[in-house]
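pinned: reference chain
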Amino acid sequence: MKKVVIVFLSFIFLFFPLVSSAEITILNLNENLSQSETLVAKVSGNFLDVIADENIFFYRGQILDRNFQVSMEHNVQKIGDDYYIYALTSGKTPENYSITIENVRYMKGADISTDKIIKNFSITNEIAAFSVKPGFVLASGDFFVEVQNLKENEITLEADTIINNSGVRKIFVSGSSLTQDSITLKSGEIKKINFKLGEGSPSLQNIELSSGTFVYHLPVYISTSSGVSVVEESFRIEPSVLTFNLEANSTTKKTIRIYNTGDKELKDVILSLSTSLGPYVTLSKTKVDLDAKSNVQVELSLSSKIETEVTGTLNAKSGNLTTSSEISLNFYKTTISSNGTVSAVKTCAELNGTLYNTETQKCTNNIDAKDGWCCLGTITVIEGNSTNQIIAAVIIGVIIIGLVWFYFAKYRKAKKPVDLLKIAKPKTGFFKKK
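pinned: its structure tokens
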């Protein structure tokens, strides 16, 4: 009997942390997402801290290292006892990814844990028929979502809001009394789908959006109070991905823009950089205001005193909304060639070039390498160089011959040998015989 009790208690203590621990559940039909498909996930658990946008991270593969961190525009909201996350995967290459919740306390059995909550997913080679923004909705009044056709051909998108539970607030498509409707989207076209709320009690519902075999279930939480849905607030950074190759020991200015794509004015949009970018990037503004359907320019100053490669994110936050841009920087020491070509300081061999003499040869694509002038193109002899050398040699020869002639004709003639007998022969009467 005692053994049975021990086994039972062991089972309880082993199982209890599993059912009480926090977890992320992907709500898409498949954890293998199509390219640019909007990710939507539910987070369940007994949390002691509020999960905010800055607690959500994305990584390439399953290596949870900052060097593998990627940015995805995302948002998190608490609905009932659970949290919902949506993320836009546009621009992400097909491979494995991870979503994590970090720096949040939650109950893991009887203990308090701050371990990362991790969920793996992947993006396939298949392109989604359409994308949805936002990926979920909290609404107390009429609302809309934006859909974009991601295919190269025209598609028809079906919206179905039929629910089986009686008494809950109904959702009608396009402001009519219909619970089903369809819209046509040209390739790349973005359209709003308007939804109108009926009478009834609050509820969490799913709107089914589909085109062909591609289906997306849009979670919608409907409350009883009136007001404007938060989905009318949205903004983004352009470009969403920035890659720069820059010269070290110099400062480069680059410009990005923050777009308010919603119908509401956004006050106090806070701009911040990830820790990795702090030493290398300076923002001209850290707080901006955006009128509805407007944008503002922000200048980035990029500099480094050393050769280095660094990646990180530029983040923008307004209330519960957040967006980001992924930044990759490569700083390297450079030299500038005579034709303006810039290259890292390397030897000519490392540059796969040929050293040449700039006085006697010319190159179609030259660069100042570490060990001298290096040709990356075709080397030719400077035109007229051989002729000039011959003329110079002739002139030098003539000068030498002239000097020799002058020496023999002038100086040797003036200095003839001395005849002692002629010197001794008397020319006057002083030496006559007596």
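why pinned: The chain has four domains: 21-127, 129-231, 235-332, 335-381. The domain at 21-127 is CATH 2.60.40.1930 (Immunoglobulin-like).
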